[in-house]
Write a structure and sequence with these properties.
Blueprint (H helix, E strand, L loop, with lengths): L18 H24 L5 H8 L1 H18 L2 H18 L13 E9 L7 H11 L3 E5 L3 H10 L1 H4 L2 E5 L7 E5 L3 E4 L11 E4 L7 E6 L10 H9 L11 E6 L7 H8 L3 E2 H4 L20 E6 L2 E10 L6 E9 L2
Parallel strand pairs: 1-2, 7-8
Antiparallel strand pairs: 1-12, 2-4, 3-4, 5-6, 6-7, 8-10, 9-10, 11-12
Helix pairs in contact: 1-3, 1-4, 3-4, 5-6
Length: about 325
């Protein structure tokens, strides 16, 4: 008698959740995310779209984490790997900005306040109040109009800070430097789209400081990105002679943008970045757009930041940046 062979039923292939459609959609999303995360690394912020995506790079970390979670739930392991690697690489770049460096800032204090006045609409009395309360030594004013200059004078700014180099203009064109200490106007920046004046601040103790009020053009217009890039490149490098130099203002750039990274790489220190405040947003002051950090105080030549804060100024679409720098003797 021949034993009958009984065949065991073969288990059906376990299908992944969502099928091929989910795989295709998730793969496209993962590829797009990887390209976004790579923008700050490959330095391709060359038009207004890539400039905008680069400005939002810190938010890509959150998007990446969500993609990793979705890919895990759908068991798409290649997507998990790609999204995880891109997220980790980007987080490794972004996260240190929230961690203070070990900086030993010594020397005479120089208190710097930078205010974007939003086409001159910022409240003059509020600016003067900040100057008085914080005992500001040097004030960088962007989008400084002739009308705002008159309002600031009536509010008592020039009684507090009597020295000035003002290039006032209509709308966003004007920029100025106002100081407690004597100023001698310099020409550290060639002519740019918006005024970017510079001056030597004559400190009573220690070395004098070269100061630039920064405001390159807004890069998100239809044809302004290359102009913004030229305006950024026009900003001076750290002084070869080692003279202290400070750049303060609205750079219209985050720490992920190529031109600002290049500038810092040549020897400047970003006050917010080294004090663990590099992710503290400065624009917009409301919720009209995802908040980003585009206002900065950079220093070189033995000038290091000791503290940093962003403050609201009524009437402005930016938050003002205040930092105490220490100028080594």
């Amino acid at each position: 008698m021949v034993d009958e062979v009984v065949e065991e039923p073969v288990d059906e292939v376990v299908r992944k959740p969502g099928g091929g459609c989910a795989t295709a959609v998730l793969s496209l999303l993962t590829l797009g995310f990887a390209c976004w995360a790579a923008l700050p690394v490959v330095e391709l912020d060359v038009d207004r779209y890539t400039v905008a995506l680069t400005a939002l790079a810190q938010y890509a970390v959150v998007v990446g984490a969500v993609l990793v979670l979705v890919a895990l739930l759908l068991r798409r392991w290649l997507n998990v790997l790609v999204a995880l690697l891109a997220t980790a690489a980007l987080a490794g770049t972004v996260a240190p900005r929230a961690l203070p460096d070990q900086v030993s800032a010594q020397g005479e204090p120089l208190r710097v306040l930078s205010v974007n006045a939003y086409f001159g609409r910022a409240e003059a009395a509020a600016i003067v109040e900040q100057v008085r309360d914080r005992r500001v030594d040097v004030l960088s004013l962007q989008e400084l109009t002739p009308e705002l200059v008159a309002e600031l004078e009536r509010a008592g700014l020039f009684a507090e800070l009597p020295n000035r180099v003002l290039h006032a203009g209509p709308l966003a064109d004007g920029t100025g430097i106002v100081s407690r200490y004597p100023l001698r106007e310099l020409a550290l920046v060639p002519r740019t789209t918006l005024a970017q004046p510079s001056a030597l601040v004559d400190l009573p103790v220690g070395r004098d400081v070269e100061f630039v009020a920064v405001h390159p053009i807004y890069p998100m217009g239809a044809d302004t990105t290359p102009v913004w890039a030229r305006d950024m490149v026009a900003l001076p490098e750290p002084s070869l002679a080692g003279r202290p130099r400070v750049l303060a203002g609205d750079f219209n750039a985050t720490l992920d943008h190529t031109r600002l990274k290049d500038l810092i790489g040549r020897g400047y220190v970003d006050a917010a970045g080294v004090l663990g405040e590099g992710l503290t947003p400065t624009w917009p002051s409301g919720w009209t757009a995802p908040p980003v950090t585009i206002d900065h105080v950079l220093s070189s030549g033995g000038v290091l930041p000791a503290d940093y804060e962003v403050v609201d100024v009524p009437g402005s679409d930016h938050r003002a940046v205040f930092t105490t720098l220490r100028v080594a003797g």
